[in-house]
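Something for you to look into today, if you have time. I want to see for myself how the chain folds. Leave the record below and I will have a look.
***
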Amino acid sequence: MFNDIRIRTAITVVLCLAAFVYLAPTLTSDLPEVWKQYLPMDRIHLGLDLQGGMHLVLEVETAKAVESTLERTTNDLKDSLMENRVRFKLNERNKAGNFTFEFPDVASRDAFDKILHNQYPDLEAASSEMAEGRGLVSLKIKDKRAAEIRKMAAEQSLETIRNRVDQFGISEPEIIPQGTDRIIVQLPGVKDPARAKNLIGRTALLEFKLVDEENSLSEALKGNVPEGDIIANESRMDRTSGRRTDIPLLLKSRTLMTGESLETAKVQISDRFGEPHVSIKFNAQGANDFDRITGENVKKRLAIVLDGVVHSAPVIQERISGGQAQITGSFTMEEASDLAIVLRAGALPAPVNILEERTVGPSLGQDSIDKGTWASLIAGILVFLFMIVYYKWTGLIADIALAMNMLLLLATMVLFKATLTLPGIAGIALTIGMAVDANVLINERIREELHLGKSPRAAIEAGYSKAFLTIFDSNVTTLVAALFLFGFGTGPVKGFAVTLTIGLVVSMFTAIFVTRIMFDYFIFNRKIVSISI
């Protein structure tokens, strides 16, 4: 029995030492270099309500994703009709957002129907009519496919935003879906809210388009935009004054290439002016496409367009092989870094709107920490005194286990990188009560057995064995509820569930395993003949 006590004591001591090691960086930043090199340096991560930061509710314009898909598919259909020599006229979008094809005769309409049926299963006619031999067909995305696109847009937006935030370097962000088209983003400790908003909400659609140098820009600015062209602004910065101006350009509306083929994007410094720019590299397929595009358009200007703004429009001097290009635009280092992040993370499939924005200051967070800490300390002291007054020396054993419970709970949070929130502090306060509840059951059982005339050893043995099932059942049912809160809850609810879950598991260990070690020590080693209970 003595060897068994030593083994259990050694396990407890090792766990306590490990807990101190994990909690040391949280308690003090003045640690030796040897510690920093070989031992854990993680601290308890504070949530948004304690550390301060940003809370955003975003809405994904999933309808825009459907419209973009319809536009791309319609343009592809237009090319197919031209390749098959089908006569048609493509009208602008109608009020419903659909494209209308006009055909001069029945034969053209029949050819169109055949191509639509065989090659474009996602499209269907929203309306169709024939009059005087001429046909009008308005196209839309099928309802089932449109629902799939909306769902995929919301899911892809969530993943893209998560990738951007991770690369931005914010620790313990909370990014979760809400409903079908909303995303909740919580960024604890963010120092620059405006920069974070720009990083998250930026669509980052990268396109390569040719500059139309054949038609007149001045006529286009008067409203006579040639068919197949668009007007976009090129953002330029004067190096001497630092003033940024917009220069209008006439571009071909057809996108030769998008950022979907990007493999990587990184910030580099220009040798000529010492300014940062973003160097991009395409994957194998993108490199082949870029090689072909530049080879076919030598001596023409290729505009690099990001979210509708032209960042540069250099003249293609020769075929560019290797799949590499540069995005310049008089960036600051911060702007270039953020641009590289959003390009690496990928473009959002649809625009994102900020519906709600809240900024929590660190002073409010510190006030919450102070009040929560005092509440937990007062609760702990009251429980500590009650156990000693009511159960005497046996209550002191329960108090030692309670202190160890708090130590192991906080260390476990550091180990699993859990985030401490204000509701999480409430969970710790609840855990204090739950932790001694098990010892109350054990002590009452021991007291009953002693009243029946049993010896201290027999009373302790019976007290633990009879109370165990009750303790186990109550903790398991609470643990199941906590796990459901963690799995289905969000934000504050999840923070409460985290500390409650860890606290319940740890309290089972301290209340049953640790206190039994102390009882067995006094029974078998000190040979006590009575119990102060």
User: Anything to note?
Assistant: Residues 2-49+362-525 form a domain with the Multidrug efflux transporter AcrB transmembrane fold fold (CATH 1.20.1640.10). The first helix runs from residue 2 to 27. The mean pLDDT is 85.
